[in-house]
């Protein structure tokens, strides 16, 4: 979808301030209220705006550990792969899952209360997911950049 500058401006504001009122948004992007409202609705209907959400403070929620877990599956069996993905989806502490190129099949972002909790998640759950033959974990020492917004230019 080709975006004009006003649509880019709307998206830029909404990425960081999803609860902004239509009145304030219209003022920030230089539109009157009705056209601004229509543009936002069109962006939602087109699928460019998928959802509105609050960004939560992971540490304040008691989730002190962030790990990136590389997963290797046994031979790509469709049934086991679907079962693996269903297990990933069901585990709330896995907050991201990416199919990867290279030597590993998937990369998981896992959050845990502490190292004991992560150990339990990895050894009692992830290692037992269907098709998993190996996992390698790396731990985040500090989030240097953790944007929620996407580039719009």
* Shape by Cα distribution: elongated
Largest sheet: 4 strands, antiparallel
Structural class: alpha+beta
Number of domains: 2
Throw out a few tags for this protein.
alpha+beta, sequence-specific DNA binding, Alpha-Beta Plaits, 5 helices, Tscrpt_reg_AsnC-like, Arc Repressor Mutant, subunit A, 2 domains, single chain, 4-stranded antiparallel β-sheet, 153 residues
Topology:
Elements: H1 5-16, H2 22-29, H3 33-46, E1 65-73, H4 78-90, E2 94-99, E3 106-112, H5 115-125, E4 132-139
Antiparallel strand pairs: 1-3, 1-4, 2-3
Give a structural overview.
The relative contact order is 0.16. The protein has two domains: 5-46, Winged helix-like DNA-binding domain superfamily/Winged helix DNA-binding domain (Arc Repressor Mutant, subunit A, Orthogonal Bundle); 65-139, 2-Layer Sandwich (Alpha-Beta Plaits), CATH 3.30.70. The protein has helices at residues 5-16, 22-29, 33-46, 78-90, 115-125, and strands at 65-73, 94-99, 106-112, 132-139. It has a four-stranded antiparallel beta sheet with strand order 2-3-1-4. Helix 1 (5-16) crosses helix 2 (22-29) and helix 2 (22-29) crosses helix 3 (33-46). The chain contains five helices and four strands, in the order H-H-H-E-H-E-E-H-E.
């Amino acid at each position: 979808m080709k975006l004009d500058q006003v649509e880019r401006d709307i998206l830029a504001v909404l990425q960081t301030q999803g609860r902004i009122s239509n009145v304030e948004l219209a003022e920030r992007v230089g539109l009157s209220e009705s056209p601004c409202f229509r543009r936002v609705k069109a962006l939602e209907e087109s699928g460019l705006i998928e959802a509105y959400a609050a960004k939560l403070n992971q540490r304040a929620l008691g989730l002190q550990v962030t790990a990136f877990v590389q997963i290797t599956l046994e031979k790509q069996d469709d049934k086991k792969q679907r079962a693996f993905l269903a297990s990933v989806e069901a585990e709330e502490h896995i907050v991201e899952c990416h199919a990867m190129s290279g030597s590993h099949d998937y990369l998981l972002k896992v959050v845990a209360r502490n190292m004991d909790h992560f150990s339990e998640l990895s050894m009692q759950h992830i290692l037992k997911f269907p098709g998993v033959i190996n996992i390698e974990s790396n731990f985040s020492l500090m989030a240097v950049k953790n944007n929620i917004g996407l580039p719009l230019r």
